């Protein structure tokens, strides 16, 4: 099946540090990648959507200068939390969607999720 | 506009008994629907998807879901719960513009021994 690898799984760092999270699709081409933030006991909150080679589309209320997203290839997207502060502490999850196996219809392609990154800013 | 409603925030069953997790959706077109499971501190794993090929969809780990257009429902079922099924479950619909997914608020399944 389609596999998405997300690294690192845990990050603890000091306030003011920038943190980069990587998301890779291992066995399919991810034409679209999504970045989510999840607060405890809540559903996922979409932060941004990125298509390979294009600028990311950010959801309302998400600071694009704070959360830098790069989708440079069909298998890799990165999220950089710049000058992180304690309020940025959260669980960040990426997902990828693209053509896999014999599924040719874009509308039928599911998202496949990474295992998430627990970010703790001290 | 698309939206997803998961009718129960918590469901508790005994091991070996059936599971029913309810999901209702709204969509302008014939939707693509998905069920995901999330274990603590993990990402989401795809259980099954509906893409208009068949109304009864079989997924992994013995889960099934039935698409009922007249009821705008896509409920998830399993005949016999296992302790390892305890997790959070999300019902998701793909948006009409295809580049967005809409999540339900999640249902936490508790399985009692």
Question: How are the SSEs ordered, and which strands pair?
Answer:
The complex is a heterodimer of chains A (122) and B (113).
Chain A: E1 4-7, E2 10-13, E3 19-25, E4 32-38, E5 44-51, E6 57-58, E7 67-73, E8 76-81, E9 90-97, E10 112-113, E11 117-121
Parallel strand pairs in A: 2-11
Antiparallel strand pairs in A: 1-3, 3-8, 4-5, 4-9, 5-6, 7-8, 9-10, 9-11
Chain B: E1 3-6, E2 10-14, E3 19-21, E4 23-26, E5 33-38, E6 44-50, E7 56-58, E8 64-68, E9 73-78, E10 87-94, E11 101-103, E12 107-112
Parallel strand pairs in B: 2-12
Antiparallel strand pairs in B: 1-4, 3-9, 5-6, 5-10, 7-8, 8-9, 10-11, 10-12
> Which two chains form the greatest contact, residue counts included?
A-B, 26 and 22 residues
Number of helices of chain B: 0
- The fraction of residues in strands of chain A falls at over 45%
- Tertiary shape of chain A: globular
What gap, in angstroms, lies between the N and C termini of chain B? 41 Å
Strand content of chain B: over 45%
Oligomer kind: heterodimer
Sketch the topology of chain A as an H/E string, one letter per element.
EEEEEEEEEEE
Question: What is the arithmetic mean of pLDDT of chain A?
Answer: 90
The helix content of chain A, as a percent range, equals under 10%
Write down the secondary-structure element order of chain B: EEEEEEEEEEEE
**What are the segments of chain B in which pLDDT stays under 50 over at least 5 consecutive residues?**
none
Please count the beta strands of chain A (DSSP E, at least 2 residues each): 11
The geometry of chain B reads as globular
**Number of distinct helices of chain A:** 0
Structural class, judged by helices and strands of chain B? mainly beta
The helix content of chain B, as a percent range, equals under 10%
Largest sheet composition of chain A? 7 strands, mixed
Would you count the extended β strands of chain B for me?
A: 12
